[in-house]
Amino acid sequence: MTLRSLFVDFNSYFASVEQQENPSLRGRPVAVVPVVAETTCCIAASIEAKKYGIKTGTIVSKARELCPDLVVTQAHPALYVRYHHRLLQAIENCIPIYKVGSIDEAECHLMGREREPDRAIDIAHQIKRSIRETGDWLRCSIGIAPNGFLAKTASDMQKPDGLVVLEEKDLPDALFGLKISDLCGVGYNMEKRLRSHGIHSIEQLCFASRAKLKEVWGGIEGERFHDLLKGEVIERPESKRGTVGHSHVLAPELRNTQSVNAILKKLLMKAAMRLRDYELLASRLHVRVKYLGFDAWEAFERMDPTDDSKILLHRLIRLLDQRQDKNKPLAVAVTLTGLIEREGTCPPLFSEMAENPALTKLLDNVNKKYGNNKMYFGSMQQALDSAPMRISFNQIPDVALEEESGKNELWMKRLNQFRVLAEAEHKNIEGRYQKR
Fold first, then answer.
1. What letters, b where the CB count within 10 A reaches 16 and e where it falls short, cover 385-394?
2. Exposure of 162 in the CB half-sphere (CA atoms within 13 A)
3. Cα 224–228–234 angle (5° rounding)?
4. What's 255's domain CATH number?
5. What pairs with residue 8 in β-bridges?
6. Are strands 329-337 and 340-341 parallel, antiparallel or unpaired?
7. 324 and 219, same domain (yes or no)
8. Residue 309 lies in a domain
9. Is residue 181 exposed (0-12), middle (13-18) or buried (19+ Cβ within 10 Å)?
10. Which residues are 228's β-sheet partners?
11. How far is CA 102 from CA 88, 141, 162, 241, 393, in A?
12. What is the CATH number of the domain that holds 24?
């Protein structure tokens, strides 16, 4: 068995980018949040903040109790995407990237002599230097192992700025110091299932048979997990996109019915634009409103496959008419599912609303060229400054599709030109009036 995979994990990525951009935050405990509110949760914590026990998911008020000197800063997703592409180039300067798993990690395949431990370690140090040249406050942990699963595990074993190599002779003993939940793919429910089958430690998991893990997982995924632990390489077929959606945690001043409706419409229009960009159609719309301390409200509606913004908006309004907010809303989400490829499909013969491809094309062209939400449906007006770009675990946003109103340089340049012309014309008219 040889070393085949090198895995790069950017340490405390969002918080580190904030510290890179703002030197006054360097060396201080920093928490990044979606909205500045005591009731929201931290989506990232700096290396300094993690020493106090603050991590992703910690409520801001609790984080302040853990660290009174905590600096809370609002997220800047577009900035993280830009740094993401710079950091990928920094890695590419040293070795080709095989796969990007999320905005803060990348996997590289080792080939030929690169699989020799000394050579692989040398490449890892080159990557670290290249990343530091991109930003002197940016760090990464690197894992090197026989497959991507073990390399990712190794990258988590030493943070920050770590480098761990798992060779065949190290396995499985090198894993015994980990908890079962430290392994990628083992969440709370899976750990519970493992324990119900008598597996309480990494050691027991590593020595379990393929048949045993197939029983635990309830299928072939258990056998795959067994093989991955042994260092085998498993090629998985490329997965198809199953959903397109957006969610948003509401700022305190927006926790009311009118704001919820407007923000959901904005989220749906963003999802519809992405749907068209992927050349997909959706046949089901799902809406969710989470309340502070109470059960969430959820509703869905089926429809003929479509990517038409007007039809989707009409369906959403019909769902929202069913809702009554008896409690204070906290977060909202809209999801399009039942996806099929647009190519080869025909519009339905009988439908309650006709598609208007000319309108959707106009919307997309204007918003792509001048910035998102330069043209929009009037019912979104109240939410234009809300629900900005967000980054999910395994989805890198397209800044060109997501960039918000007022942030597009070309649009602002032309807007300023119009202002200059308008002011000149105003002075011209004013001068003629005074002469009279």
1. ebbbbbbeee
2. 19
3. 65
4. 3.30.1490.100
5. 106, 142
6. unpaired
7. no
8. yes
9. exposed
10. none
11. 11, 15, 19, 15, 6
12. 3.40.1170.60
Distance CA 308, CA 195 (A): 48
Which CATH number fits the domain that encloses residue 202? 1.10.150.20
- Shared-domain flag, residues 253 and 346: yes
- Considering the domain architecture, whether residues 275 and 161 belong to the same structural domain is answered as no
Q: Does residue 237 sit within a domain?
A: no
- The pLDDT > 70 percentage for the chain reads 79
53 and 152 inside one domain: yes
3-state helix vs strand vs coil in the chain, percent to 5: 45, 20, 35
Q: How far apart are CA 279 and CA 303, in angstroms?
A: 17
pLDDT tens across 315-343, in order?
A: 999 999 999 888 889 999 999 999 998 87
Please list, residue by residue across 129-145, b when 16 or more beta carbons sit within 10 angstroms of its beta carbon and e when fewer do: ebbeebbebbbbbbbbb
- For residue 405, the model assigns a pLDDT of 44
Query: Residue 265 falls within a domain, yes or no?
Result: yes
Tell me, yes or no, whether 375 and 300 share the same domain: yes
Residue where the block lists tokens 């060229």: 369
* Bridge partners, 246 (sequence order): 334
Read off the tokens for 394: 């395994």
> CB within 8 A of 44, min separation 6: which ones?
12, 13, 14, 15, 31, 32, 56, 75
Contact (CB, 8 A) for 23 and 65: no
Q: Would you state the pLDDT for residue 383? A: 55
Distance CA 41, CA 373 (A): 27
Number of domains in the chain: 4
Q: Are residues 365 and 390 in the same domain?
A: yes
Count of residues making up the chain: 436
Element (H, E) at 74: strand 71-74
The three-point CA angle 71-75-78 to 5° equals 145
pLDDT in tens, 7-52: 999 999 999 999 999 999 999 999 999 888 888 899 999 999 999 9
- Residue 67 within any structural domain of the chain: yes
Structural domain span for residue 436: 406-436
Residues 370 and 358 both lie in one domain = yes
Q: Looking at the structure, do residues 34 and 125 belong to the same domain, yes or no?
A: yes
In b/e form, how buried is each residue of 65-89, taking b as 16+ CB within 10 angstroms? eebeebbbbebbbbbbbebbeebbe
Among 132-141, 230-239, 356-365, 421-430, name the one with the lowest average pLDDT: 421-430
Please give the Cα distance from 144 to 158 (Å, whole number).
Answer: 12
Structure-block tokens of residue 400: 């060109």
